[in-house]
Amino acid sequence: MFNKLKQFRDLRSQAKNLQNTLSEEKTTVSSSGVSLTMDGNLRIINIDISAELLNPDKKEKLQNAIKDACADALKRMQKVMAMKVREMGGLPQMPGLS
After folding, report:
1. Res. 91: pLDDT tops 90
2. Residue 90 and residue 77: Cα distance in Å, rounded?
3. DSSP H helical segments within 1-97, as ranges?
4. Within 10 A of 51 (CB to CB), how many other CB atoms are there?
5. Does residue 32 form part of some domain?
6. At 71, is the pLDDT very low, low, confident or very high (cuts 50, 70, 90)?
7. 50: domain range?
8. 40 in a domain, yes or no?
9. 81 has pLDDT over 80
10. What's the confidence (pLDDT) of residue 26?
11. Does the global pTM surpass 0.70?
């Protein structure tokens, strides 16, 4: 019983360390005049929109550009996260969770 609690605490500690490590990672992508920066906790920390997209007649183009930039940033950050998890030794095998 105590061994499982220790394993859970160790796993929680590793998860916290991973979260702290990932929070320092950042990726910036640009798509169709929109530049977006996302951190390792998958939070958008900056959006820069080109002046040409600010025309009200181009609202749909702006919305699509932001959506595309978000999707690209998310894909890139997921790759960074997977690499960091591997570098940190992967996730431990927990009994009963296979």
Report:
1. no
2. 17
3. 2-23, 59-87
4. 7
5. yes
6. confident
7. 23-87
8. yes
9. yes
10. 92
11. no
Please identify which residue in the block is written with the tokens 């595309």. Answer: 68
Q: Which CATH number characterizes residue 55's domain?
A: 3.30.1310.10
CA distance 14 to 88: 9
* Residue 45, phi then psi, degrees to nearest 5: -105, -10
Lookup result for tokens 């600010």 = 54
What are the tokens at 75? 């894909």
Residue 18 lies in a domain: no
For the chain, the domain total comes to 1
Q: Is the dihedral of CA 69, 74, 79, 84 positive or negative?
A: positive
Is the separation of the CB atoms in 17 and 85 below 8 Å? no
What type of residue is 37? T
Give domain status of residue 81, yes or no: yes
41, 19 in Cβ contact below 8 A?
Answer: yes
* Residue 38 falls in which region: left (phi positive, over 0), alpha (psi -120 to 50) or beta: beta
Inter-CA distances, 88 with 36, 39, 65, 93, 98, Å: 27, 19, 35, 14, 20
